[in-house]
Amino acid sequence: TDAIRPLIAGNWKMNGLKASSAEFDAMLTGAAEVTAKADLLVCPPATLVAAFAEKVRGKAVAVGAQDCHPKASGAHTGDIAAEMLADAGATAVIVGHSERRADHGESDLFVKQKAEAAWRAGVIAIVCVGETQAQRDAGQTLDILRGQLNGSLPDGSNAANLVVAYEPVWAIGTGLTPTAKDVEQIHGFIRELLTSRFKSEGARMRILYGGSVKPSNAAELMAVPNVNGALVGGASLKAADFLAIAKGC
Ligand code: PEP
């Protein structure tokens, strides 16, 4: 009954050298088996975006990036503009990942500006939200998510230009995952917020689950209502695991 086409997105984080091309090639080879069911996106470090984008020409795999700066150019040493990512061949960019929110103090407003920058460059924004363990323990999960979504999603978000990724911080890289019941409740809550703000577009936006997704739990998580794919960290580094997750859709 869920007509939204799933997206399986890999976030390589700060992993990957030129030699990682072989693993990416293996993903491209295996992708043909899974792209009937789901869209596939790999977000390598920025240094590999251009080389990987060359490889996906004519293939059913897209290449994305992990962050962008709100501005198109200027005096921002070390930052990368969305226009530069688009120029390198990226078609999507992750913004507001919890590691960037934590490591770089990124606010909801800054994340929203990055999402708008992505659109300006013609790139899809994948906006990440999620509560910490302490917030969860304090019973604040839904309030935190409401605040992050209200603050990080720009007006004008639609099903084609924006993807939401729900990533509980305590589940990222820990091997812990929420129960399917918890995921259903939270994704249902996010869906309500999206439809109340973005109407029919909000009803069609993809809401990814992220946090310790692996081949052994992917099918159960992907079957949860309002879960429209996954954002995968560690398990996206290995072609066999990443493809097995996509097959679980
Ligand atoms: C992530 O950081 O986006 C993520 C989901 O990581 P992992 O799959 O390794 O938990």
Please sum up the structure shown.
With 249 residues, the chain is of the alpha/beta class.
Task: Describe the fold and architecture.
The chain has 249 residues and is of the alpha/beta class. It has one domain: TIM Barrel. It contains ten helices and eight strands. Helix 8 links the parallel strand 6 and strand 7. Helix 1 runs parallel beside helix 10. The radius of gyration is 17 Å and the shape is globular. It starts with 6 loop residues before the first strand and ends with a helix. The structure holds phosphoenolpyruvate. Phosphoenolpyruvate binds next to strand 8. The site of phosphoenolpyruvate has 13 residues, from strand 8.
- Report the order of strands and helices: EHEHEHEHHEHHEHEHEH
Number of helices: 10
Let me know the average pLDDT.
97
Low-confidence stretches: none
The CATH superfamily is Aldolase class I
Oligomeric state: single chain
Radius of gyration: 17 Å
Helix content: 40-55%
Bound small molecules, by name, code or SMILES, are: phosphoenolpyruvate
The CATH class turns out to be Alpha Beta
Give the domain tally.
Answer: 1
Count of DSSP E strands?
Answer: 8
Proportion of residues in β-strands = 15-25%
CATH architecture: Alpha-Beta Barrel
GO biological process, one term: glycerol catabolic process
Subunit structure: Homodimer.
Catalytic activity: L-erythrulose 1-phosphate = D-erythrulose 4-phosphate; D-glyceraldehyde 3-phosphate = dihydroxyacetone phosphate
GO molecular function: triose-phosphate isomerase activity
